[in-house]
Each structure stands twice: as structure tokens, then as C-alpha cells.
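Look over both lines before class:
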Amino acid sequence: MTNSRISGFYNMKIEERRLKLEDAAEAASDGLLPFTTGGLSPEAADHMIENVIGLYSLPLGIALNFQVNGGDVLVPMTLEEPSVVAGASFMAKLARAGGGFTATTTDPLMIGQMQVINLTNLEEAKLKLYEHKAELLAEADSIDPILKKFGGGARELEVRVIDSSPIGGFLVVHLIYDVRDAIGANAVNTACERLAPRVEAITGGKVHLRILSNLADRRIARARCTIPVKELAFDDFSGEEVRDGIIGAYAFAAVDPYRAATHNKGIMNGVDAVVIATGNDWRAIEAGAHAYAARSGRYTSLSTWNKNLDGNLVGTLEMPMAVGIVGGATRVHPAAQAAVKLMGVKTASELAQIIVSVGLAQNMAALRALATEGIQRGHMSLHARQVAIAAGASGELIEKVAAQMVREKVVRIDRAEEILKEIQ
């Protein structure tokens, strides 16, 4: 049984944390080995992208305290920004008092698009495609027998008419494809390529673009949590003050796109970190999330924050989540494999549920800071260490220089250099 509550983890040395992690996850030490080295060799990297000359490392931390759908989970997060792992872990601790996170996903349906141009009559071509829908779906369904064996394959065909554009009117054919535990890009793109000649024959037009859409609005992940109002109190802030401050901050993001962009960036701080750690395509997740946030025609918050009848804080998050646990970098990168194994997920759906829960936790961490003491206080001490290192501090001097800058509330490299000279 995984135990995501590890007391004092933050203050331990790296090796101590690894040992604690082995105990908490009941994992063999060699199972965590990829985390100690980055997991990737230059030779392996050379097969992943072009023109490889070496490797580039990012920190990998573990978010603690997460309970998703009743089960504890240790969450690997890969990113460079301070305070994110700590913030998400602390909010997960508060969420535990209300039962943790409850998360769900829809079926893993992805959309493949075919743009059909050079048509004389758009409406006629549209109807012809619907008349041949069954055979088109049958052909798409036969392309990947392995995927079909696991319950995936073509599900639906939809045709949209674009009346006007810079090149005139055209059709957009959507192939809805169940990709099971894969991200699905290769399967969907292959299916569109296969169907293109048949679509041209039916319509008399030309299939121009044929490509997966990253607006995966058929593949949605949702999470919610309830925080007892008493758990929100700290220092001189009452639980009611913190709750109402978070709700007020959410209201700002709900109506103003300038605030919503930063609000959603905070969500993606948590989401992307887990997506990267598991070898998934964080750029696709980002594109889908922001497009989904603007689906009404106005960019807005992906999350909601309100109170229930008991006065407790309730948060929800809904967003596209096209992640996989088979194929791609997830199967090639040893550290990504270790991350998936550490979380104990068996399906892409389970992974998506954890990721959306982390996004909601990180969103709450940012809103709580903004609505109370300000975002800088918690962030400043962590950022100060990076600035101290950049100024040339090492060993014990890092903490001394950082602490002095935090006391002065001046975290700049020029001040760090001055303090370092004074100490030395």
C-alpha cells in the first residue's frame, strides 16, 4: 500500500528521501535508479530526436499527501520553478481532511481532422460522406488490430461545413477514434491517411490536411475537492477569510482573460510537471487546455471555486487530458517508466485523474497565497536560493545569502553578490 504522507520529507537529504520513498511505495531501490541519473543515456537520446549532442536535466521532485479516488499516490513532478511541489503537496494535505480528490475521465476519444477542398457543392459532399459513413468507419477500424483487440478503434464520423475562409469554403471531416491507453497521435494520423483517398473518391474533392487535433474535447478529465473551512485558517487569517479570498480570486479569473491566463498558468504548473515526468506531450496538453478555456469564445478559468451549504471550500477542474502510458517517450525513457510505476497507474485514465488532481491542488496553492499573504512570501525564499547560487554562493553560504535577501525583501542577483562579499 502506498503511503503519500511522509513527515519531514522536505528537510531530509536526497539519499534519505530516496530511502523513505522506497518504504512509502514499497519499491525496490533499483526501481528508483532512473531518478538518480536522469534515466537517459546520450545513445538512447540519439534515437528520440534529431541532431543530439547531449542531455539537458531538470529537477524531479515528489508531491506528497495526494489521495485520489480513495487511494494514496506519490506524484513525480519535473519542473524548474520553486514552490510548485511544496504548494501542491500542502494543498493535497488540506484536501485529505475533506476526503482527498475525486476524479473521473471520459472515454479516451481523440479527433482526427481531414480538410476537404476543391468542392463544387459543400452540402452535397457532406451528405455523400454521411451516406458512406459505415464503410469509412469500418475501414478506419481495421487499421490497427492491436488497438482494436484492447477495445479501441473508430467510433464516429462527423462532417462540418466551413462556408468561408481565405481560400473559400471547404469541409472538415472529424474521425472520432478511441485510442485506449495511448496518447493516440500516431493511430489517429494513420487512420486519416488511410481514409483520405476514399474521402476524395466519395466527394470528388481533395483531402488537403489530415492530422490529429490537440483540442481533445472528447477526452476530458475532471477533479473536485472539498476543503473543510477550519483547515484553511493560518496565522492571523480565519478559515472564512481564506475561503472567501480564494473564491474572490477565482471570480477575477472567471471574467477577465488577462487574469485567467495567469490563473490557468498556475494550474498548468502542476499539470505539466507530471506530464513531463511521465514522458507525455506537455505541449499538446497546453494547447488543448488553453483552447478549451476559450471554447465559449471568451478565454476564462479552467477551474471553479465556491462554497457548499456547510460553508466549506469546493474546487473543481475540467480540462482535456490526452495522456498515455504506452508508446512514445513513456516507453522509451527509463525515468518516465519509473514515474508511471511509482504512481501505480495501470491505465491512461488513472494517470489523467492524478494529473488533473495535481492541477487543482496547485491552482489552490496559488490562489491561497494571492488571497492572503501575497504570492511572493512563499515563493521568495525558494527563489532566493536560486539567486544566491547564481551569484556564486555554495554550500552553507547559499542559505545565509538567501535568508538575508528574504529578510530584506530584496531578491536580486546584485544584492546577492553584495551579501556574499560581506560574508566572505
The first helix runs from residue 14 to 25. Strands lie at 60-68, 71-78, 101-105, 109-117, 153-162, 170-178, 206-212, 220-227, 303-307, 313-320. The mean pLDDT is 94. Residues 369 and 377 are 8 Å apart (CA to CA).
